[in-house]
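Lab meeting, item 3. Inverse folding demo.
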């Protein structure tokens, strides 16, 4: 007789694949043993059973790499704990390059890996052949060897994790379908199933391909889409042995691993094939999709080219198994902003085996600890907006995003599908004036404006970009004349109500009890003292605040604010982003221009810095804030959307003789780096505190209301830090950095660049990044030493700057240049 479901569990997990079993394992390891795993079929029956099982260490950033390395350590030790084999084998991996551009990318990979403490080395095609004798090498220019990578058996690994979880008290039920959820006061408190109701404190959606539809039951947005994924398995091949490394040939879209003396060969076609647009059948258990040799042919042709032995080798299995993919290629983790206690770990983009070990640990720590345990911005569920779950948009984006899995990922690469979607009222005007657009959370934003005779289209590369001349002209216009930037994509949140000030005082590290018609910049921190966001808070009235945040942050920030709202407090939080167009008018002639279109006195006494005043502009009314993100004089105008075109035209009608021109976000980025302005997701994140970021002014430790993170900051000695943000100029004017390059101090890697830009005035790169040290250092001590930046294996001398180049260095350089 089957064991009946319990009526209650501390945590209910939906899904018995590797993600769900890893989460259960780690929850019980943390002492949370009242865990119930509900699997609608059998363990591993969804995607896990047909996964290829490749396990690599290196990820895009330090935090994600730490996660992956933990997973490898877990897989290597799990059999000793549970007695069940995992199939883990540290065989290393080789990634080959067919082109010089790919080799440059791999050299960047090597530099990053070494900075993260991962063993990685460049090898020649001949050396690659010694490690992988079946390979054709006549068209290769080089390769990278990572000896710590490996492979595992997905089914065995999952069963081992499940046994470890059971051994510590978790209960796993198969053949149980979730039919509904129970939500009370904005929190999930239980699930309804085909075998009864289970109440819970927390719920974790690890339902894989079914995660999006399961999320819809509770109003939770989980943007993922299934796509067909192909691989074949050969019979035994002479020369293939169990220690053969994993091989990736991204220029041919393919990968290989050894299996029972033969090869598994799969890949990621450049044009993917989505599946399951109308939902995934609930009984799709241990099933595959029909063969599609037309879709697979491009991979097969490349595989025969790379490994000629395949042409005469017998194929014993051709597999087409669907997997779930996300719009940006990163998996989804965290507590959903829509429902308290509802957690998600899904959308692993064909890398579930590599990521699930570490992801299970992180989500378990999040559930038990009540907050993200590390910087998880790349995978945090709050990075998405509701439109990201639009079925048609998801389908089109999946075709592109999956196809880019092995494609060249160039610096500032822009995805093209599902665009344009979110547009400023000025989009058509800017496009007509030569704007090249980038996308941020669906918003079309002008990156730069093409010069006469040039196309508004980027040609990607690692050297000096073709758009730089246009960006240089825009930069010089800001420093010498006046420029208008369309920054309508800024997130704008209206926080109103009797207790609005009290709530914001608890959340904000700075004192936001300011007078109406003024504003303050502040950090929004977690309990560890790290940044959850950075905001400009404008007080419009005693009970009304307008919060300005980054384009990608509204969903995250609204979730954070509402999460800390007490039941008895009277506060409403409304996303008003689309209600206002934002135009930034900046440069030495900004005040002169605005004075031509408004009767408002813009002088220092009538309009001091950080003032927020409603003014007339032409026939319209706008909220004007005296502030500049790029340094120098400037105003941000918040204009009702329906009046935006009028205000824009009014400004340009009045500013022709002042040299007025449009500017794009590449210029904003360059100038804000010159001015030392930090950016969330780059310099600011959950693992960085305000002292490390050099933003002490955004914190008031002695303000009358205690704020989140205050206790953690009080324990820090700001004068001596083992990690701090530093700014450099590159000595070689020809060097070009894109971000992520290692920082070396006295020959040793100490961190990576977070932001980079070419300064038109200084005629060289200005860069920022965090430098780490074994012992806490003062800023003066940190400035000493020989600094270099590793750009694709070549080291360039870097001069640390004690303060941002703007204004002193920039103004001096402008004067020299006349």
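The presenter then showed the designed sequence:
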């Amino acid at each position: 007789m089957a064991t009946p479901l319990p009526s209650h569990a501390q945590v209910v997990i939906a899904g018995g694949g590797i993600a769900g079993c890893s989460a259960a394992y780690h929850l019980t390891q943390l002492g949370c043993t009242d865990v119930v795993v509900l699997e609608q079929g059998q363990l591993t029956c969804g995607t896990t059973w047909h996964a290829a099982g490749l396990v690599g260490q290196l990820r895009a950033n330090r935090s994600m790499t730490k996660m992956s390395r933990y997973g490898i350590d877990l897989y290597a030790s799990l059999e000793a704990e549970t007695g069940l084999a995992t199939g883990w084998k540290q065989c290393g991996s080789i990634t080959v390059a067919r082109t010089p551009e790919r080799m440059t990318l791999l050299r960047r990979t090597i530099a990053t890996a070494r900075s993260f403490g991962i063993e990685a080395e460049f090898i020649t095609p001949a050396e690659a052949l010694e490690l992988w004798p079946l390979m054709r090498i006549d068209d290769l220019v080089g390769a990278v060897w990572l000896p710590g990578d490996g492979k595992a058996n997905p089914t065995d690994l999952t069963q081992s994790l499940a046994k470890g979880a059971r051994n510590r008290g978790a209960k796993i039920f198969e053949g149980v379908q979730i039919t509904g959820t129970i939500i009370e006061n904005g929190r999930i408190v239980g699930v309804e199933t085909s075998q009864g109701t289970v109440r819970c404190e927390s719920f974790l959606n690890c339902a894989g391909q079914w995660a999006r539809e399961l999320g819809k039951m509770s109003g939770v947005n989980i943007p993922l889409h299934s796509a067909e994924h192909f691989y074949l398995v050969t019979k035994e091949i002479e020369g293939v042995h169990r220690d053969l490394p994993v091989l990736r040939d991204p220029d041919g879209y393919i990968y290989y691993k050894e299996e029972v003396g033969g090869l598994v060969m799969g890949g990621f076609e450049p044009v993917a094939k989505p599946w399951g647009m109308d939902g995934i059948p609930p009984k799709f258990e241990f099933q595959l999709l029909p063969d599609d040799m037309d879709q697979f042919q491009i991979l097969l042709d490349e595989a025969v080219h790379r490994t000629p032995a395949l042409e005469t080798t017998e194929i014993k299995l051709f597999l087409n198994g669907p997997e779930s993919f996300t719009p940006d290629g990163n998996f989804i983790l965290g507590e959903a902003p829509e429902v308290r206690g509802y957690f998600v770990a899904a959308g692993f983009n064909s890398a579930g085996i590599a990521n699930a070990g570490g992801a299970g640990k992180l989500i378990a720590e999040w559930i038990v600890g009540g907050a993200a345990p590390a910087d998880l911005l790349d995978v945090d569920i709050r990075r998405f907006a509701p439109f990201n779950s639009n079925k048609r948009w998801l389908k089109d984006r999946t075709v592109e995003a999956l196809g880019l899995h092995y494609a060249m990922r160039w610096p500032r690469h822009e995805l093209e599908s599902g665009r344009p979607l979110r547009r400023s009222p000025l989009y058509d005007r800017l496009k007509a004036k030569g704007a090249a657009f980038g996308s941020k959370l669906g918003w079309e934003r002008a990156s730069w404006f093409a010069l006469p005779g040039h196309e508004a289209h980027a040609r990607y590369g690692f050297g000096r970009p073709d758009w730089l001349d246009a960006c240089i002209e825009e930069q010089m216009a800001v420093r010498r004349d006046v420029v208008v930037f369309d920054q309508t994509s800024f997130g704008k949140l209206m926080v109103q109500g009797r207790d609005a000030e009290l709530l914001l005082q608890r959340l904000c590290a700075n004192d936001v009890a300011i007078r109406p018609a003024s504003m303050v910049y502040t950090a929004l921190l977690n309990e560890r003292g790290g940044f959850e966001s950075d905001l400009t808070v404008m007080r419009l009235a005693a009970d009304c605040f307008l919060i300005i945040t980054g384009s990608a942050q509204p969903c995250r920030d609204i979730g954070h604010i509402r999460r800390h709202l007490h039941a008895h407090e009277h506060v409403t939080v409304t996303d008003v982003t689309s209600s206002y167009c934002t135009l930034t008018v900046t440069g030495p002639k900004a005040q002169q221009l605005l004075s031509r279109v408004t009767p408002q006195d813009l002088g220092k006494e009538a309009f001091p810095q950080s003032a927020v005043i409603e003014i007339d502009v032409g026939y319209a009314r706008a909220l004007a804030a005296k502030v500049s993100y790029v340094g120098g004089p400037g105003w941000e105008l918040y204009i009702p959307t329906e009046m935006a075109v009028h205000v824009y035209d009014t400004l340009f009608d009045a500013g022709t003789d002042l040299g007025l021109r449009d500017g794009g976000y590449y210029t904003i980025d360059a100038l804000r780096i010159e001015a030392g302005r930090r950016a969330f997701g780059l310099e600011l994140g959950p693992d960085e505190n305000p002292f490390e970021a050099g933003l002490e002014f955004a914190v008031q430790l002695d303000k009358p209301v205690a704020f989140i993170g205050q206790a953690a900051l009080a324990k820090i000695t700001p004068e001596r830090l083992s990690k701090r943000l530093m700014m450099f100029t590159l000595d070689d004017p020809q060097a070009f950095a894109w971000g992520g390059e290692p920082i070396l101090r006295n020959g040793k890697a100490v961190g990576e660049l977070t932001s980079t830009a070419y300064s038109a005035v200084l005629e060289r790169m200005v860069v920022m990044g965090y430098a780490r040290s074994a012992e806490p250092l003062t800023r003066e001590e940190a400035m000493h030493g020989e600094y270099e930046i590793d750009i694709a294996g070549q080291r360039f001398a870097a001069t640390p700057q004690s303060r941002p180049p703007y204004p002193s260095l920039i103004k001096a350089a402008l004067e020299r240049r006349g």
